[in-house]
Specification:
heterodimer, A: about 500 residues, mainly alpha, B: about 500 residues, two-stranded antiparallel sheet, 20 helices, 2 strands, globular
Chain lengths: ~500, ~500
């Protein structure tokens, strides 16, 4: 058996098949369902890291391709960049599955939920491993389809309306990506992420068209990456259950968009070529606009999940900004922030879910002193929020530091100003929450929605504990070769963008 | 291959009709189903022959031209025949269950003979090379389709059927007049022979106009679509499926043959291709918009056909415009793919809609409750068929949109790109509107009526096929590009 061919397929199948089987299980068979889910998730984590080992240490290239009769193949290829997103998706899927099992205990339609949940991760690992624009588009669209049932999971009127909004945005984004991918292929023939530089060989008369296609592609990916003004779906989609928000906002959807932007800039156009065409300036402008606008909106929200959602809008754009600057440090910052933002934001959503599920709290104003009732959740929330603000030595600080260095390296000193301003705004919307949680007196008696031995069931506490620990460790041991930062540096040097 | 097979294959449905007609009422379904199975199997043998050898070119009864009736089965015909075979068999199985429901029992004896005539008419239409025969077959198909539409028996369906009948007859008459002009000019009736000897006169231009308009109205291209939604929306479920998947494809097929074979050398197609492009755009926008605002399930699906036809009509501006031959082949393959995937997906949707109506007792999407719980398989079917209609990967619809969009971008007719891009967006709008109503749960509402095994599975099978043809493009593209020597693509005919 040729592992280089089969491993990518098995990684996809490890969530696809459990998902498909789960659809056909009856509601009551929760043990079997959980077992299937956790087995698939564990297998995926193990295999993803096995592939990482084989690629980084042994130097094997994993690739599986099939003809589609479209001039372009369906290709799964695991390169350095894939690994980053793959590892993030598979690890976070494991912890989120655990969380979801606890969170949804006893609620209806769980088979449907877990089925689509698994398909969602299949789609995002597919996005990670896609070897060419066509394959990326296939999984990008698949992701839209399978997240919709999760957004409308509660089946209420507002949920269905939110689902509709979500769809209009994402389907629009999908059709833009489609147009861009087809156009590129018509112009330049089949493209491949491994063979960057084809576009540079086109004559200068095509440069205007290339710029147009770039705009179309970024618009398409920007919908899921929640670039202003395409971010409208994200706060609305907060109606979904907490594990879905955690997964959508930290892993699957927004990251697929951000990843698409990274791929477009680095592997389709090539960072330097995109810079020559003058495309990165506008992109950086949109990113900055999104960073500031998202933070300002977050301050105005009183619903905790909505505030987190706008915070995501802002934070995801660090990736875009890092992509748009032509400097080694910012490239590394963009790649590493894919992971850092993921682990910190998922912790925050887990904690918000815990407050909602055990004490019934959604609005920040109701949360006075809640952390004293649920100290562990409070500590974890505080840790992740500090990380988001960029307090050293947490993960967020590392991203911002590199981004700032990148800005200076590219001769764009304003980036540092933006970072300072943005961190200030982050503090403005996170610190009041922390102070409310810890230092204010509760107005009334707590209504305990779920009683358990600890402050919440262990399945709801372990996942945020793990991700919060990861965000501390990622910052603390950033210099280690295999830390997210270390790997990001290897990726950048593999792409020739790190000295 | 056994040389008599094509002839027997064309005769089979009519023999079946006679047989079924003579059978007593209770046993008619058995005869009908037997004929359906044979009709399903035969085209595969023909397809295998065309695939390995070459298009089939023969004269019925052995009479030489110009006396004999020419049969010409190329790759395009094969794909239409196979589509008819697959949809035909599954619709027959569905109809078996559907008409055995007590409320439909009285209509059963009338269904089978009409259905077999329709099927036979379509098969012959896809195989004939003779333009007068084409007229006769168009009439046969139109009349039997209108009669089937009326089978629902209520006032709405009778009105719709009458209107459908009048449009079909008017279209056929325009077509016949055009055929008369052609015969007067050339003295020939065989498509490829006419193409060789046609003079570029104003009489031929008139024939071109009459035939195009007649066929466009039978195919329901905007603005001639007005008869389609009521007819498809009010016919019984299996018939709606056949009408939308096959019958409109019949006249579309003839239109392809006339534009790209019979009138190929003349100035008509070259000068008027862009008009059809505009109509295609209008059809996509208007049909999809109407589908978005309807509240009756079957009307949504019917208007969706109006919109989806727009994609197919893109072939006319693309093939008659200035375009590299390689891209023309690409556009041609895209059009063929759209025909196949739309046929399969739309039939699946209509059958699924029939199940929904059967189970919930209502056609109004706002009153649907608990569908995902009562009919999980049907909801899944609608989702799959929807994916193909929206053109999301991997599905037949995706292939079609991809191929067409590439050809459009290569042709420089940018505005045509609006059809697949906006069309996909609007299609997603109405498909998800449909699907979101299946998610509405209500613990009070019970599942209303019974859905037989065959009704669930046939719809699912059709939807699955519309997805799966997206995985094997090679054979389909081979039939369309290597086995269809159509003149507009640089082929030489038989």
């Amino acid at each position: 058996m040729n592992l280089n061919f089969w491993l990518p397929l098995i990684v996809l199948a490890s969530s696809l098949f459990p998902g498909l089987i789960i659809f056909f299980l009856s509601e009551e068979r929760s043990t079997l369902r959980t077992a299937l889910n956790l087995t698939g998730a564990t297998l995926k984590v193990v295999l993803a890291h096995f592939m990482a080992y084989r690629l980084l240490v042994l130097g094997h290239v994993h690739e599986a391709g099939f003809g589609m009769g479209l001039g372009s193949m369906f290709v799964l290829r695991v390169d350095f960049l894939s690994l980053m997103f793959l590892s993030l998706s598979s690890n976070l899927w494991l912890v989120t599955t655990l969380y979801a099992v606890g969170y949804l205990e006893g609620s209806p339609n769980r088979s449907r939920f877990f089925g689509f949940f698994s398909l969602c991760v299949t789609a995002s690992t597919g996005v990670a491993m896609a070897g060419n624009p066509l394959t990326l588009f296939i999984f990008y669209e698949f992701l839209t389809l399978v997240t919709y049932p999760l957004v409308v999971h509660r089946e209420t009127g507002p949920a269905l309306r939110a689902g509709r909004t979500y769809l209009w945005y994402t389907v629009f984004g999908g059709s833009m990506v489609f147009l861009g991918v087809v156009w590129l292929q018509t112009l330049a023939g089949p493209l491949d992420f491994a063979g960057t530089g084809v576009l540079q060989t086109l004559g200068t008369e095509h440069h205007f068209t290339l710029g147009l296609i770039f705009g179309v592609l970024i618009t398409g990916f920007g919908v899921k990456a929640a670039l202003v003004p395409l971010h409208g779906w994200l706060p609305v989609a907060m109606i979904a259950p907490a594990p879905v928000s955690a997964l959508l906002h930290a892993v699957a959807v927004v990251k697929a968009g951000a990843f698409g932007i990274v791929r477009t800039v680095f592997d389709v156009y090539g960072r330097d070529f995109a810079g020559q065409l003058g495309l990165l300036g506008p992109l950086a402008f949109v990113a900055v606009l999104t960073i500031i606008f998202g933070s300002l909106q977050a301050i105005a929200q009183t619903d905790l999940k909505k505030r987190l959602a706008y915070s995501t809008v802002s934070q995801i754009s660090y990736i875009t900004l890092g992509t748009a600057l032509i400097a080694p440090f910012s490239t590394v910052a963009a790649i590493v922030h894919l992971v850092h933002q993921g682990i910190m934001k998922i912790t925050l959503f887990f904690c918000a879910g815990n407050f909602a599920e055990t004490l019934g709290l959604h609005d920040i104003r109701e949360m006075k002193g809640a952390a004293r009732r649920m100290p562990l959740t409070g500590v974890l929330f505080t840790t992740a929020a500090m990380g988001m603000i960029g307090v050293p030595p947490l993960a967020g600080f590392v991203s911002k530091w590199y981004l700032g260095l990148g800005g200076l390296g590219a001769g764009q000193n304003w980036v540092v100003m933006i970072l300072v301003l943005s961190s200030l705004l982050n503090a403005v919307y996170f610190l009041p929450v922390i102070s409310t949680l810890w230092f204010e007196q509760p107005d009334q008696e707590w209504v305990i929605m779920r009683s358990s031995r600890f402050e919440a069931p262990w399945t709801l506490l372990l996942p945020p504990l793990l991700t919060a620990a990861a965000s501390i460790l990622a910052g603390l041991f950033a210099a280690w070769t295999w830390s997210p930062l270390g790997v990001a540096r290897q990726i950048a040097s593999g792409m020739g963008m790190w000295p | 291959m056994w040389t008599e097979l094509p002839g027997l294959f064309l005769l089979l449905p009519f023999a079946g009709t006679g047989l079924v007609f003579l059978l007593p009422n209770q046993t008619r379904p058995y005869g009908g189903l037997l004929a359906a199975i044979l009709l399903f199997l035969a085209p595969w043998a023909i397809a295998a022959d065309v695939y390995t050898n070459s298009p089939i070119d023969m004269n019925l009864g052995g009479w030489p031209q110009p006396l004999g009736i020419g049969i010409y089965i190329d790759g395009l015909s094969v794909l239409f025949l196979l589509l008819t075979a697959v949809v035909g068999l599954l619709v027959s199985v569905y109809a078996w269950s559907y008409f055995s429901l007590p409320e439909n029992k009285t209509k059963e004896p009338h269904f089978w003979p009409l259905w077999l005539i329709l099927w036979g008419g379509l098969n012959a239409l896809f195989s004939t090379a003779d333009i007068f025969n084409t007229y006769v077959l168009l009439e046969l198909v139109g009349i039997s389709a209108a009669a089937l539409t009326a089978l629902a028996g209520n006032l709405l369906s009778l009105t719709a059927a009458l209107r459908y009948f009048l449009v079909a007859v008017a279209g056929s008459l325009a077509f016949l007049l055009g055929v008369g002009f052609i015969y007067a000019q050339t003295g020939q009736l065989d498509m490829y022979t006419v193409a060789q000897s046609a003079p570029d006169t104003s009489l031929m231009a008139a024939a071109f106009g009459l035939i195009s308009v007649g066929l466009m109205s039978k195919t329901a291209l905007f603005p001639f679509h007005f008869w389609l939604p009521p007819a498809h929306g009010n016919a019984p479920a299996p018939i709606s499926a056949a009408l939308s998947a096959l019958v409109i494809k019949g006249s579309f097929f003839v239109l392809l043959k006339f534009w790209f074979v019979v009138f190929h050398g003349l100035s008509g197609p070259e000068q008027t291709g862009w008009i059809l492009g505009i109509l295609a755009l209008a059809a996509t926008l208007w049909g999809s918009y109407q589908a978005l605002i309807q509240s009756r399930l079957k009307l949504i699906i019917a208007y969706s056909s109006v919109g989806q036809l727009g994609y197919m009509f893109l072939i006319f501006p693309l093939l008659s415009g200035v375009l590299d031959p390689g891209w023309k082949l690409q556009a041609w393959a895209g059009c063929g793919y759209q025909v196949l995937s739309h046929g399969l997906a739309k039939a699946a949707l209509f059958l699924a809609a029939g199940n929904l109506i059967q189970a919930s007792g209502t056609d109004n999407i706002h009153q649907l409750r608990n569908i995902a719980v009562c009919l999980p398989m049907t909801s899944f079917t609608m989702g799959l068929a929807g994916v193909s209609l929206m053109g999301l990967p991997p599905s037949g619809g995706f292939m079609a949109k991809w191929l067409l969009l590439q050809a459009i971008l290569a042709s420089g007719q940018w505005w045509l790109a609006l059809v697949p891009v906006l069309g996909g967006l609007l299609t997603a709008g109405y498909i998800f509107r449909l699907l979101s109503h299946t998610f509405v749960s209500d613990t009070q509402a019970a599942c209303y009526g019974r859905v037989f095994w065959g009704m669930d599975k046939t719809a699912l099978f059709l939807a699955l096929s519309s997805i799966l043809i997206g995985f094997r493009a090679q054979e389909v593209v081979f039939f369309l590009q290597e086995r269809t020597p159509i003149l507009a693509l640089g082929g030489g005919g038989p």
